[in-house]
Amino acid sequence: MKAKALKDLSRCAVHTITTKPWPIETAIERYVEAGFGGITVWRDTLKNRDIAKVGKHITDSGMKTAALVRSGFFAYETPDERAKAFADNRLAIKEADMLGAPMVVLVCGAKPGQSLETSRDQIKEGIEAILPHAEAHNVKLAIEPLHPMYADDRSAINTLESANEMAEHFDSEYVGVAVDVYHLWWDPNLKREILRCGKNGNLLAFHVCDWKTPTEDLLLDRGLMGEGCIRIREIRSWVEQAGFKGFNEVEIFSSKYWNQNQDDWLQQIKEAYLKHV
Ligand code: ZN
């Protein structure tokens, strides 16, 4: 069963990192003008801002906040790093609450030279430590598995199966998973794991972009939907089959696109979303 093309942008949220040169106020205004239904706010855009006021700006404009990105980074080598990670995650949860974001996306963390098993134990410990805080603020935690190319220093959770196991361990409505096509498209078990994620009530978010060949930079050369090899619409059909009804979030880190005129870039995103997502 293939999903049908989407007719409008009401279920589309743009990550502010996608239009990195714009301050948050400009991003809100331009996304609304373009017709997007949602925005996913990156924490760097909230620096020196009254966060509740930004949240009100979004609500007054008629958009919804899909999520606050990002916290996590639970892997540590020293007690000091551990304490800092916990404190920063508690702060992110508080910021999400002030902003009116229903969830925080967790990039779970890894440390070069430290075994992935050790990092995974630390991730489990970290989520356990901040979970009461998330419940108190009514903010969910979305574990985002990252592509294995980031297993050395960004994330010890690299498959949807691994993220599902972590979420199922907690068995809490406040812990779930963010599915990003960029990180997971290659996985032969992707459909099975997406259905499992939905069945267990853990499918919290869906992120889209594309994988370019060749990818010139492992972090900052993501493609626009339709530009690469990811079968985005097919994956969306699995996500919807799994019961997901949230936003399709466009998240593209690209130095190439950040150097372009951002109004033209947003127009390209709009067209690519309707054509390829
Ligand atoms: Zn993502």
Index terms:
8-stranded parallel barrel, globular, TIM Barrel
Task: Give an overview of the whole structure.
This protein has 277 residues and is α/β, with parallel strands linked by helices. It has a single domain (12-276), classed as Divalent-metal-dependent TIM barrel enzymes (TIM Barrel, Alpha-Beta Barrel). It has ten helices and eight strands. It has helices at 24-34, 51-61, 79-99, 116-137, 160-170, 181-184, 190-199, 232-241, 255-258, 262-276; strands at residues 12-15, 38-42, 64-72, 103-107, 140-143, 175-180, 203-208, 248-250. The protein has an eight-stranded parallel barrel with strand order 1-2-3-4-5-6-7-8, surrounded by seven helices. Helix 3 links the parallel strand 3 (64-72) and strand 4 (103-107). Helix 7 packs parallel to helix 8 (232-241). It is globular and about 45 Å long. It starts with 11 loop residues before the first strand and ends with a helix. The model has no long low-confidence stretch (mean pLDDT 97). The structure holds zinc ion. Zinc ion is lined by residues 144, 180, 207, 251.
